[in-house]
Amino acid sequence: MHKKLERFISLLIYLSILVPFVPVKAQTPDEWVTLGKRIHGGFGSYIALGIRIGLDAMKHLNTKPRKLDVTYFDGANAPYPCVVDGIMIATVATPGQISLQVIPSKSDVSNFGNSW
């Protein structure tokens, strides 16, 4: 019994060292849709937009999923739940990890400057 426990602990140590270095394989569009349906309850164009925004942000910031803190400014007329869920899916930033925050806004104007 003692020998089995030693082997198990050794295996856990090896895995904890190796797992962070295993490359994550890119997800297919079908997997994005399935994940969007599971998280959001359906999949539409705004979830796809959020995924695209998240992937584009990671590309331009040269970072990987889980390495990004996201702040989403919710406008008065924005389809926020859909877009935020898409961003969350792509970046793996979540409110529970405090890596995704949604800041409510009463007006879209303040986010982009003064109106004419």
Describe this structure in words.
53% of the residues lie in helices and 9% in strands. The protein starts with a helix and ends with a helix. It has a domain of 79 residues: 60s Ribosomal Protein L30, Chain: A. Helix 4 links the parallel strand 1 and strand 2. The protein has a two-stranded parallel ribbon with strand order 1-2. The relative contact order is 0.13. The chain has 116 residues and is mainly alpha-helical. About 8% of the residues have low confidence. It is built from five helices and two strands.
Question: Helices, strands, pairings?
Answer:
Layout: H1 2-18, H2 29-40, H3 45-60, E1 70-74, H4 80-91, E2 100-104, H5 109-112
Parallel strand pairs: 1-2
Question: What characteristics describe this protein?
Answer:
5 helices; 9% strand; 60s Ribosomal Protein L30, Chain: A; 53% helix; mainly alpha; globular; 116 residues
Summarize the structure.
This protein is mostly helical. The protein has five helices and two strands, in the order H-H-H-E-H-E-H. Helices cover 53% and strands 9% of the residues.
* Cα Rg: 19 Å
Inertia-based shape: globular
Arithmetic mean pLDDT: 76
Low-confidence stretches: 18-26
Strand arrangement, major sheet: 1-2
Into which percentage range does the β-strand content fall?
5-15%
Q: Which class of secondary structure composition applies to the elements?
A: mainly alpha
In DSSP terms, counting alpha (H) and pi (I) runs of 4 or more, how many helices?
Answer: 5
Helix-strand string: HHHEHEH
What is the CATH class designation of the domain at 27-105? Alpha Beta
